[in-house]
# Entry
Amino acid sequence: MKGYPLTISSWGDEELRAIQRVVDNDRYTMGVEVEAFEREFAAGHGSRFAIMVNSGSSANLLAVASLFFRREAPLRRGDEVIVPAVSWSTTYFPLQQFGLRLKFVDVDADTLNMDLDALRDALTDRTRLVFAVNLLGNPNDFGAMRTILVGRDIALLEDNCESLGAELEGRMSGTFGLIGTFSSYFSHHLSTMEGGMLLTDDEELYHILLSLRAHGWTRSLPEENHVTTKSTDLFLEQFRFVLPGYNVRPLEMSGAIGREQWKKFPTFLETRRKNADYFHGRFANHPELRLQTEVGKSSHFGFAMVIRPGSHWRRREVVRRLHEAGIECRPIVAGNFARNDVIRYFDYEIFGSLSNADHIDRHGFFVGNYHVDLRPQIDLLVRTLALA
# Structure
């Protein structure tokens, strides 16, 4: 490995054989491989239902959409949803596209997740949804969040696209909300190149998601379901549409690859955590940098660093030095998303100060973590930053 890339491929011969298995079967849209991966993924998380889609972005889209079509207390356009100010764009876009009013709250300066005091203070009678984001492998404190939300008619969704394998209170992240979403993009913990997954224990939402995933038709639904009465006329049920759905089905190859990646995932996760232990040991009590504080057991998507207030370091210079040393880095997700130009298309408000999100936006960056021993790369990072 030259330098310190943001990520590298985690595929081996097993994934190539899985692709060939699909080719040999001559079935390319979702089929038995996708179904098997869904079962294995759900079982591994202790969840009842898993629905694979073509990306984590689509997983977020379906999660939001499904809440508009449930029978009891469906979401309505104009309802208020609370979101952390730091996340990726596709946490927010489905909320805008469904006409929800976003309320941005600050993030915690240490965990980089939603500031729970800000969440508590931001709740109103109009709040119908909290979309929590487990940032860079770090789960939210869902015990504290449950205490804040108890007794309120507020749904909780969990964007877990960056945090596969994280744990809290003996549970896997992505299982604390009504729905948890996952991504299997190239750089993520498990890679099908493009792909996503949703987990839920709610059978009604599961049936809604099945329909929304494939055109909003009834073909994907069991005969007994929570969406509609299904006739026994199979000919008519082929093209019967009951929800305004999408086509976000995964490829059969993605399911087959995901099954092989899932077998390897425990080893991937163990190595990521060993890398994290080494990284934190080398950067503990750094005079110029703050590190992300772990909640529960992080799955360490990457290593976030934020230049401390008052430091003489300037991010532009740090990034330049990293680039010259062959170390890839990125902003911390999308920084303070409310500062992006696209926000002019949103119905939104900013609750209180977003000072931590602003500081992360201007002074934060992260480097990669993945499934191989990164001690030499972390040593290169230490040497490079010593020159800053």
